[in-house]
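Objective 1.3, modelling of assemblies. Example input:
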Amino acid sequence: MDGIERYRVRTGQIIRLDEWDPDETALFDGSKKEGKALLPALNQRLEALQELLWAQHTHKLLIVLQAMDTGGKDSTIRHVFEGVNPQGVKVHSFGVPTPEELAHDFLWRIHQCTPGSGEIAIFNRSHYEDVLVVRVHELAPPQVWERRYAHINAFEQMLTDEGTTICKFFLHISKDEQKKQLQERLDDPSKRWKFRKQDLEDRRLWPAYQAAYEDVLTRTSTDAAPWYIVPANRRWYRNLVVSQVLIDTLDSLRMHYPQPEEDLAGIVVE
Amino acid sequence: MDGIERYRVRTGQIIRLDEWDPDETALFDGSKKEGKALLPALNQRLEALQELLWAQHTHKLLIVLQAMDTGGKDSTIRHVFEGVNPQGVKVHSFGVPTPEELAHDFLWRIHQCTPGSGEIAIFNRSHYEDVLVVRVHELAPPQVWERRYAHINAFEQMLTDEGTTICKFFLHISKDEQKKQLQERLDDPSKRWKFRKQDLEDRRLWPAYQAAYEDVLTRTSTDAAPWYIVPANRRWYRNLVVSQVLIDTLDSLRMHYPQPEEDLAGIVVE
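Predicted structure (tokens):
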């Protein structure tokens, strides 16, 4: 899939989400069935690259996933990382902060979960909630969250300078798609456990959330840590886009297996 | 003790350590004996302020101690915090990084140890080693440690914005004083365990360390997180200065005990 950079937010680019079509599948002109059939090959490629990352033990990869409710974060993790060795890949879900977490700065719990050499860390929600839900639900005054954009950029720049590669994905769905997903959760007894009444309240705040996301995407996409806006109404296409970005990113690191010890040729194991 | 701000490094102030006298006792004109007799009152004041900090559970205090070998970091902690309730005060000593710590950025292990609300954290050595020993012993190339001054300033600014008060102390001793202390360690069987041959090598690098400290003090003293250069040849005076800075800093937070629950008047406990 060529042309993936169309989804990358350039440094300083001003984002208005209604200009980004959550339904588009511009980089693939086959059917849904054909698109789905493409994923296993990408899984295998990602698997091989993760093995190399682990073996070389030099680079660290941090993946941030953000989306509106029902945007498909869990499903993306399941499908994109299918087959990838869980050793060396850690998923961290950041929910409502504990009292101990709240007693520290907002990056405290985040920093602890950043990847070490050879590791991939996937953040299912992240420090961005501290300028999203915190802003929309007024959990902190504007002067507090307003400063956080700069703190986030400095933090991510530091991570990058110290050897971490960062990819951030906003899974972009439409309000209609969310309606469909929420109704499905309510109607399907096996999915009903996922539904919280809070989801409806958050849905009423849709415009405020979209505005908060626009600020995040406009103010925190940097060369060091770019955002990708992934059209996510069609899940098969979303999976292809996220996989391709990760593969391109890992490819660009030009990794290689460590040199074996010397004088191994001719050794016969008895 | 008035005039303590003479030891505070102003933002942007260029520091040359040979202009700072490690022997001076400018703010106290009594004898050593009289100076020592002053400390218990300061201990008690600090103890009361720490109790208030703990009870109010709002502010966080981070104390950074740096010094050349034998500069007196351990001794300062012991004397300044004598009598202070160890609940709510945590000392973190940062030695040679573990493999896991080295697999992460230099602030990773540091951030985990920052204080929570109501707590005091004392760093015995700190993230500053990553621009001191790392620079002097060339453990990382200049382009790596050069970036770290800015990362440190951004990190400390973030901590401050999120509610942490930071005091940083450089315990300033002379090369002669170090000689005296090292010889004492060698000659006194009960102190000999503290001596490492490495100390002599570091002593040969004295000028390089002083230059590295001058850069730290010049580039990372900010309004958010000021450095104090403490004359530390006379230990009794060093203790008075550190205590006074901490007391003044905590006083400036204008803390108060939390409001008790209402309608407690007249209650008789049976």
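Chain B is about 45% helix and 10% strand.
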